[in-house]
Design a protein that fits this description.
Layout: H1 17-28, E1 31-32, E2 39-40, H2 42-45, E3 51-53, H3 80-83, E4 110-112, E5 127-128, H4 136-141, E6 152-153, E7 158-159, H5 172-175, E8 181-186, E9 191-195, H6 196-202, E10 207-214, E11 217-218
Antiparallel strand pairs: 1-2, 3-4, 5-7, 6-7, 8-9, 8-10, 10-11
């Protein structure tokens, strides 16, 4: 539960003490956020949206697909053949990281919880409050009440790990590009693919866009 690839066991008022202890250990463990480098634990931070992320991806031109902010890409030169001639040098070829593996140094455009991975939170990571009912009194003693946290959504009794916002369909970067289909994740965590005409007919639409397509091919650069 400290990142999108981990899940917290469901707890109810009927859960056994060993089950509650296992979840307590998970909630109280101190971690370090990979996004902002702050220390945190889930008891105090889950659902508070104390961090920010880029839900999109870093493009080859150094621009984030979600907001248009720029992060300069590091340039690597393949000089290991030359440097390997020196006796003090490592002759093995270095691993050049993919540009999308580099940590973000640009402030995120979407509020979210702290994260121990580079995978951004999505609306699929929301947690029903009833699955945390056994630890709500404990969490109240160690931070802001669960129902008063920024991520609490009273519409469905959910604790969200990232804020809900509308798709950026009116942004100039979107309006100025050719595309005919959009794939996005709605606020319920379900994936949809719609035509340009369909999505603008429903606009504004809450969710996180995944990809735009034009004539069957993904639009890579925004």
């Amino acid at each position: 539960m400290s990142n999108p690839s981990q899940y917290l066991s469901n707890l109810t008022l009927y859960s056994t003490k060993p089950e509650i202890k296992t979840v307590w250990d998970e909630l109280s463990t101190t971690r370090r956020c990979l996004t902002c480098d702050q220390q945190y634990n889930l008891l105090e931070s889950m659902g508070t949206h104390g961090c920010s992320q880029h839900p999109g991806y870093l493009q080859k031109n150094g621009v984030y697909s979600c907001c248009g902010q720029t992060q300069h890409i590091l340039n690597y030169h393949d000089n290991y053949r030359l440097t390997s001639m020196f006796t003090s040098s490592n002759t093995s070829r270095p691993r050049i990281p993919d540009y999308q593996e580099l940590p973000s140094i640009v402030s995120g455009c979407q509020k979210c919880d702290h994260n121990t991975s580079t995978i951004p939170w999505s609306h699929a990571d929301r947690k029903p409050i009833q699955e945390l009912s056994a630890v709500i009194p404990i969490m109240f003693k160690h931070g802001e009440h669960l129902l008063q946290r920024n991520g609490f959504d009273p519409r469905g009794g959910l604790l969200r790990r990232c804020e809900v916002r509308a798709l950026p369909l009116t942004h100039e970067r979107i309006l100025g590009k050719h595309w005919d289909h959009i794939s996005y994740l709605d606020e319920h965590g379900k994936k949809h693919t719609q035509t340009k005409k369909e999505i603008y007919k429903e606009s504004p639409v809450n969710g996180m866009f995944l990809r735009f397509q034009y004539k069957g091919r993904p639009v890579e650069i925004w």
